[in-house]
Amino acid sequence: MNTPSISIFQNGQLLHANRGMFKFDGFGVPTGTFGNTQCFDSVAIVDSCNRRRMIDGNSYGGGCTVCVRFNGNRHWYGIGSATQVASANLTRLAKS
Description:
The protein is mainly beta. It has one domain. It has one helix spanning 82-95, and strands at 5-10, 13-17, 23-27, 30-34, 37-40, 42-46, 52-56, 64-70, 73-79. It has a six-stranded mixed beta sheet, covered by helices on one side. Strands 3-6-7 form a three-stranded antiparallel beta sheet, with no helix packed on it. Strand 8 and strand 9 form a beta hairpin. It is globular.
C-alpha cells in the first residue's frame, strides 16, 4: 500500500519535503479557496515515532501550500486561516 507523502512550500520556496519520515494524516477545517485551490486551517502528519503534528497557517509565519503525492499523482492545497485566505485573495485581485 502506498502512503501519501507531502511537501510544504511558501512563496515558491520548498520548506519541508517528506522522504518517508512523515505520513500524511489529514486536513483540518476548510477555510475557503485561493483561485482553484481548496484551503484548510491545518494539515496533520504523523512522524516516525507515531507522534501527530499539526501544521497550520502560523507554523511558518504565514500561509503555505501543501503538495500531497499519492500513487504518482500530485494534489495541491492551501494551509491558512480564513483571514489569511481572504487576505491572499484580496492581494491577488488587486494585482490583476
